[in-house]
């Protein structure tokens, strides 16, 4: 995915665009570019980060009250200066920035080549800019808007685009299909961005473009239409993001800030939903689909990456307490395998960003087949909550670090609430146990704070093993997906190979890897599998492996066995995944810092994957 920003108004566009690009850099960071329009269009672009672009432009003419900017995550063509956006059409009539993929770009490119066009870059976006221009030049007396509309009618794929036209320098045209685009409304000025974070410091009033919509925007006027040219009434929404939540706030990295924000983020996830006083858990967003869930023959949870791991934790909890059969699938597999879905199925789609292309496509497929689809999403107003029948926002606040942390615990919190609420409604949890669980949930934020207080100890452990080539993570039951999540965190930000395994599976293969150089992180809290996990630790130690154990506070048995222990407070089994993941996040963070890795922007990754 990429990030796009735009501005049209009376202020200097450049500072707004460059700051906006910095806010969106988490979406892609292999090259960046800006176009400034001041009667004529000037374009600057280069390989590298937004800061490289800033240096590159430092001594250039930065004037203009209209402009657009782009930060790229390469799909078509390697990251280099030429492939960076904006892309200008061959004869200079149109300038385009684009987030998404034009799937039929090759066919369109061949047609354009046969009509005399040549191409400088390897991108699908240059094809779009030339297609718009070709239509503009070959039809008589056509407006830029019409040319964009005709071009988009020929395009297959996903896009969020901004287009500037040489002959109409007082407008910007925005269009969306499959890739998000938000328009902020100021006083005689408009702001454009892939998400609301670059807009929030200028205005709180926004319009979220829907799929198939385009906006033709002048300084003091916005016309919203469908791509088929039907005029629409814009729906203006007020965004609820404060500026502090998108700043680092004194932390070295967004990831560290987001790890430390988890007690507050989880409180925000609970707010108005878990009440000790009323002895009740209630998720209002599910109200209208509750009968469907209660009668569901099966729940299918879909998601990708960390969201999929949260889904696996949810599987254990929902089966244990709601007693409804649950399957968990990668959205990317589910959508391509003609799954058997009926109207009796409830699908829960989990996504931090609400924009992951595979999850969105899987939702559409499940809906086509008649299932009721529920979204568990963090970003308010994103595509997934708009596509689902009902849903629960996680309310964890903006997550900027590419490695997901607080979004995971917020997702697991929602799934835990769901499991307990359904368990109680369906008569599987008696009043006493229900109260115990509500108390346990309410204590999660303060218990996470206790774990965060051990960050110095965790940093020391991380420093000791920063040069390991491999790590193994083990856990059982609902803690197995937590082991998977620990391994994913380490891989993505420190580039150390790591695998998560159910602890009992170790002896079926991975045990062969263990030697004195192999750190094994074992989640060994006191639950019904405790003795078995102790045995697994002994098996690792017998082969000279290094054991870093996550244990229940006061555990002496494992203290005597393991090389290092990190304690988590005691709590009901249902909430231990929320606690056990915190040391794993910190281990990864400190190892990545010790290895001098770019924690917030790991190589090759982007925050959300809006391509298939
Ligand atoms: O926005 P989503 O939750 O749909 O994103 C899913 C994955 O791309 C995401 O969790 C990814 O695995 C993270 N980088 C993990 O830290």
Task: Describe what you observe in this structure.
- The chain is globular and about 80 Å long.
- The chain has 20 helices and 27 strands.
- It is an alpha/beta fold.
- It folds into three domains: 242 residues, Glutamine Phosphoribosylpyrophosphate, subunit 1, domain 1 (4-Layer Sandwich), CATH 3.60.20.10; 203 residues, Rossmann fold (3-Layer(aba) Sandwich), CATH 3.40.50; 147 residues, Glucose-6-phosphate isomerase like protein, domain 1 (Rossmann fold), CATH 3.40.50.10490.
- Helices cover 36% and strands 24% of the residues.
- The mean pLDDT is 94.
- 57% of the residues are buried.
- The chain binds 5-amino-5-deoxy-1-O-phosphono-D-mannitol.
- 5-amino-5-deoxy-1-O-phosphono-D-mannitol binds next to helix 9 and helix 17.
CATH class of the largest domain: Alpha Beta
Label the overall shape: globular
The structural domain count equals 3
* Count of beta strands: 27
Distance separating the two termini: 10 Å
- CATH homology superfamily name of the largest domain: Aminohydrolase, N-terminal nucleophile (Ntn) domain
Oligomer: single chain
CATH third-level topology of the largest domain? Glutamine Phosphoribosylpyrophosphate, subunit 1, domain 1
Spatial strand arrangement across the major sheet: 3-2-4-1-10-9-11-15
What's the structural blueprint in terms of helices and strands?
Blueprint: E1 3-8, H1 13-24, E2 31-38, E3 40-47, H2 50-57, E4 66-72, E5 87-88, E6 94-102, H3 105-114, H4 124-138, H5 144-154, E7 157-165, E8 168-177, E9 182-185, E10 190-193, E11 205-208, E12 213-218, E13 221-226, E14 231-232, E15 237-238, H6 254-260, H7 262-270, E16 274-275, E17 280-281, H8 290-294, E18 298-303, H9 305-322, E19 326-330, H10 331-334, E20 345-351, H11 357-368, E21 372-377, H12 383-387, E22 390-393, H13 406-425, H14 431-442, H15 444-452, H16 455-464, E23 470-475, H17 480-494, E24 497-502, E25 519-524, H18 530-542, E26 546-552, H19 557-561, E27 564-568, H20 576-594
Parallel strand pairs: 18-19, 18-20, 20-21, 21-22, 23-24, 23-25, 25-26, 26-27
Antiparallel strand pairs: 1-4, 1-10, 2-3, 2-4, 5-6, 6-7, 7-8, 8-12, 9-10, 9-11, 11-15, 12-13, 13-14, 16-17
Helix pairs in contact: 3-4, 4-5, 7-13, 7-15, 9-13, 9-17, 15-20, 16-20, 17-20
């Amino acid at each position: 995915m990429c990030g796009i920003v735009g501005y049209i108004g009376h202020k200097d566009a450049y500072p707004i665009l460059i700051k906006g690009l910095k806010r969106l850099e988490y979406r892609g960071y292999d090259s960046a570019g800006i176009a400034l329009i001041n009667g004529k269009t000037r374009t600057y672009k280069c390989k590298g980060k937004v800061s490289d672009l800033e240096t590159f432009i430092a001594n250039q003419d930065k004037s203009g009250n209209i402009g657009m900017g782009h930060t790229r995550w390469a799909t078509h063509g390697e990251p280099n200066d030429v492939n960076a956006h904006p892309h200008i059409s061959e004869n200079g009539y149109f300038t385009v920035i684009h987030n998404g993929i034009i799937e039929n770009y090759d066919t369109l490119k061949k047609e354009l080549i046969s009509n005399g066009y040549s191409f400088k870059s390897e991108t699908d976006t240059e094809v779009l800019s030339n297609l718009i221009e070709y239509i503009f030049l070959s039809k008589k007396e056509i407006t830029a808007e019409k040319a964009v509309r005709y071009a988009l009618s020929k395009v297959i794929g996903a896009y969020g685009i901004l287009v500037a036209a040489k002959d109409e320098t007082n407008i910007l045209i925005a269009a969306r299909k499959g890739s998000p685009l938000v328009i902020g409304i100021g006083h005689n000025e408009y702001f454009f961005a892939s998400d609301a974070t670059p807009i929030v410091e200028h205005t709180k009033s926004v319009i979220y473009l829907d799929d198939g919509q385009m906006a033709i925007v002048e300084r003091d006027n916005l016309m919203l239409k469908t791509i088929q040219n039907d005029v629409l009434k814009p729906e203006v929404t007020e965004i609820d993001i404060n500026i502090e939540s998108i700043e680092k706030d004194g932390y070295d990295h967004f990831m560290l800030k987001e790890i430390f924000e988890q007690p507050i983020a989880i409180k925000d996830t609970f707010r108005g939903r878990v009440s000790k006083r009323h002895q009740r858990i209630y998720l209002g967003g599910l109200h209208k689909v509750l009968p469907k869930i209660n009668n569901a023959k099966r729940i299918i949870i879909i998601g990708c990456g960390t969201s999929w791991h949260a889904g696996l934790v949810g599987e254990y909890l929902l089966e244990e307490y709601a007693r409804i059969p649950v399957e968990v699938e990668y959205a990317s597999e589910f959508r391509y395998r003609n799954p058997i879905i009926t109207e009796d199925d409830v699908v829960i789609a989990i996504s931090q960003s609400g924009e992951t292309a595979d999850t969105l496509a899987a939702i559409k497929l499940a809906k086509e087949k008649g299932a009721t689809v529920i979204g568990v999403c963090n970003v308010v107003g994103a595509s997934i909550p708009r596509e689902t029948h009902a849903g629960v926002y996680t309310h964890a606040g903006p997550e900027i670090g590419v490695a997901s942390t607080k979004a995971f615990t917020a997702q697991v919190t929602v799934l835990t609430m769901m499991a307990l609420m359904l368990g109680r409604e369906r008569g599987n949890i008696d009043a006493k146990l229900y109260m115990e669980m509500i108390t346990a949930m309410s204590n999660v934020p303060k218990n996470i704070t206790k774990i965060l207080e051990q960050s110095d100890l965790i940093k020391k452990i991380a420093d000791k093993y920063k040069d390991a080539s491999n790590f193994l993570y083990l856990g059982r039951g609902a803690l197995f997906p937590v082991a998977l999540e620990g391994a994913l965190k380490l891989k993505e930000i420190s580039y150390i190979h790591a695998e998560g395994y159910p602890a009992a599976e170790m002896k079926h293969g991975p045990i062969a890897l263990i030697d004195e150089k192999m750190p094994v992180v074992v989640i060994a809290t006191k639950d019904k599998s405790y003795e078995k996990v102790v045995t697994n630790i002994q098996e690792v130690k017998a082969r000279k492996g290094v054991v870093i154990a996550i244990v229940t506070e006061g555990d002496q048995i494992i203290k005597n066995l393991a090389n290092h222990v990190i304690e988590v407070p005691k709590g009901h089994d249902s909430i231990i995944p929320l606690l056990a993941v915190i040391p794993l996040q910190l281990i990864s963070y400190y190892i990545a810092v010790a290895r001098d890795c770019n924690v917030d922007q790991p190589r090759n990754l982007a925050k959300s994957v809006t391509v298939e």
